UniProtKB/TrEMBL annotation:
Signal peptide: none
Gene3D superfamilies: Phosphorylase Kinase, domain 1 (3.30.200.20)
The gene coding this protein: LOC108672740
Lineage start: Eukaryota, Metazoa, Ecdysozoa, Arthropoda, Crustacea
GO molecular function: ATP binding; protein kinase activity
Keywords: ATP-binding, Kinase, Nucleotide-binding, Transferase
Record-given protein name: Calcium/calmodulin-dependent protein kinase type II
Length: 90
């Protein structure tokens, strides 16, 4: 049987909480391969309605396109079984 995907925890070490959003917790994380630090916005997708889930996908799609010195860059976007991880520059 296929193992559930653990792409986030395989690749990042989760550290302290940096802040909270309406549907998310933002935590500092360290990319294991590089030692680089990022801010991971961790969203419990089990609590989201279908509409909210669409909004989350839209947010990720838009963030991926944004390139501006005053806007944090979306580095990675990972969907696992119960959580979605948006990995931003810290
Ligand atoms: N890239 C980052 N670096 C450092 N801290 C961050 C970063 N992103 C978010 N935070 C912290 O997390 C808090 C919540 O993040 P953000 O404002 O993105 O959430 P939100 O848009 O309110 O959330 P939601 O999408 O759940 O409604 C911020 O106020 C800030 O303290």
């Amino acid at each position: 049987m296929a193992q559930p995907s653990t792409r986030f925890s395989d690749n990042y070490e989760v550290k302290e909480e940096l802040g909270k959003g309406a549907f998310s917790v933002v935590r500092r994380c360290v990319q294991k391969a590089t030692g680089l630090e990022f801010a991971a916005k961790i969203i419990n997708t089990k609590k989201l309605s279908a509409r909210d889930f669409q909004k989350l996908e839209r947010e990720a799609r838009i963030c991926r396109k944004l390139q501006h010195p005053n806007i944090v860059r979306l580095h990675d976007s990972i969907q696992e079984e119960s959580y979605h991880y948006l990995v931003f520059d810290l």
